[in-house]
Each structure stands twice: as C-alpha cells, then as structure tokens.
Amino acid sequence: MPPPRQFTFLEFFAGGGMARLGLGAGWRCLFANDFDPMKRDAYAANFGLEHFHGGDISAVTLTDLPSEPADLAWASSPCQDLSLAGARAGLGARRSGAFFGFWRIVETLCAAARAPRLIVIENVAGLLTSNDGADFVAVVSLMASRGYVIGALVLNAAAFVPQSRPRLFIVARRRADGDDWPRVRPADDGAPQALLDAVAKLGRSAKASWRWIDARPQAERVVSLADILEEGAPFDPHRVTMARLAAMAPRQRDQVNRLAASGDRHVGAAFRRIRVEAGVKHARVEARFDGIAGCVRTPAGGSSRQIIFEIDGGRIRSRLMTPREAARAMGPGEDYRLPNRATAALKLVGDGVSPPVVAFLARTVLEPALHARRAAA
Hints:
There is one protein chain. Helix content is 31%, strand content 21%. By secondary structure, the protein is α/β, with parallel strands linked by helices. The chain has two domains: 7-221 and 353-376, Rossmann fold, CATH 3.40.50.150; 234-321, no CATH class.
C-alpha cells in the first residue's frame, strides 16, 4: 500500500520555520517567504532553501508561487503594532499592515483557481481588540468575501511548554470543501470574552461565515522552567542580583525571602516593568515562580530580556535567559539550529510560533478538516 499523500502548505512570514516544524512530517512545504536575511539564514540552516523565496511579501507574484494548489496557507504576520508592548497602531501601521501583502497573494491565488483549502493567521490576541475590534472584523470579512468559513482559537503555549504565550489563530476553510468544521462547539462554551466581543462586531455576511471550532488542549506540558535551564550558564555578580531584588515591590521581595528561607530550590523568570504607584513611576522587577516563563520577546529593549532567578539553599542568584533556554521555552527541539549571535537568536525565537501549539492545531483542526474533504471527494 503506498504511503498517504502529505498535505501541502505555503508558509508566509516564515521566520526560522517554526510553523513548519510544528506541522511535522505529514506536511510538505511548497513555498516559504520572509524578508529578513538573518531569518533566511536560520531557515537555511534548519531546512535548506529549496522552497524559500526571500524578499518583501509585497513583491511576491503569482509566478513566484508553485502551480500546485496548496492545502494550507500559513501566515504568522507581524504583531508589533497589535501587541500591548507596541503602540497598538493596528493593521493600518507599517509592520502589522504586512498582512495585506499576504492577503493580496491569497486573492491572486483565488483568481488563478489555486485558492488554498485552509488559511491560518497567527498573531497576538491583541488583534481581537486593536482599533476597537475593527482589525479583526476586517480580516474575517476579507476571508468571508473569498468563500471561506472562519473560526478562531486563542491557544496558550503554556499547555505544552514552560512559557506563557497566548496567541490567536484565525482558521479559514474553503466553503467548497465543506460548510462546517469536523469539530464544533457552542459559542459560549469556554471562548475568551475578547473573542466573543470581537465576533459580536462582525457584519451580517461575515457572521454568516463564522463557525466555532472545538479544540481545547488538555495540559500536555511535562517540563517546567527549571528543566530547561542551561547547565553551567554563568550567573551575574551578586551586586547585580541585589539591585534586581531591590527593584522588586515589597510583597514580591517578601515572597522571594520566604522561598529562600525554605532552603529548597526554586526557579523563576522575571521582566523589568514600569509601574505607577501612588502617582510615581517605578522601574520594577516582577518575577514568577510557578514553573513557567513569561512570553519570550524579541530583544528590542533593555526590558525585553527575561531574568532567571535561582534560589537554592538560601542563596539567591540571577542572570539573563540564554538563547537556548528561550528556544527550549518555545519548543522547537534541541537539534534546532540558532544563530550564533545572542541578539539574532533571541529575535528569531521571540518572533516565532511555538511548534507544539502548531502541532496541536494541525492534529485537532487542520488535518481533520482536510481528511473530511478527502472523504467527501
């Protein structure tokens, strides 16, 4: 019996190919695109460049794309203008507005009778609320206008890896392949309030194309933050740690003191944040000791790099998270090749998508939809 045919995909804003990793061996890449030369090099180191097309997405033409219709078009479009850490300028801004370059390609493929059977837009959950929900409405309306039924999920990587990383996945299925998803749930059954509010703002036509997808991960994570630390990574001088402790709010410092007094080993991750307390701005160090890191970010500023705290036998030490630890928190695997420069490696990881989350989405949503289309064909 011949092996089953692999599903095919196009990967836009590919970065270092972490969506490709998550899709796994059951999927075959037809085309990948990213404009960043550093990310291109990382993609080449891990997958080669056979299907990679460098350059701005706005310059991609139909002749650049494969003639074979793809099962999936994946787009992890830029999030900087949609995230709480950014200026919240929305899809109209330069970076996050690159989404429309992707959508131009989808429309070109539709016009050439090569429409992808599925589309996934991955972005920060801020897309649900940017411009008071108008950006989300625009994305869903565009998909509906091209004959897709649409659903969305907010999935947190913390279910799979030791990192809190909630992300929005908008999933569209070509209506010609089926008017519903294989797994459907009631609208009010566990969907985040921000998603419910965003869907309520859809126009009549877009709302008629909306479907609620049932895909809720059970806790699959088996490793904690302590398990991903690099052995032998040097800690910072004691005075640096003391300065970080001094920057903690009194309640947090009390927590650290209690953990140290226990004599046990505890590992935490922290960010620097500006907090307004009694009308005064304070630069605070805020740590968590619940076994997971905060969201891994790109190293755009001094506050974006996470701090690792290790408390053991009453001793408190700290240092910056290493690039390999950041990668482990994302989940691409130990054999995933990172750039040699720490800044480049952290940017690559911080801009990526968690492969175990992609694998879950493929297993529970994308592949069942494509199998259902094959069965009906």
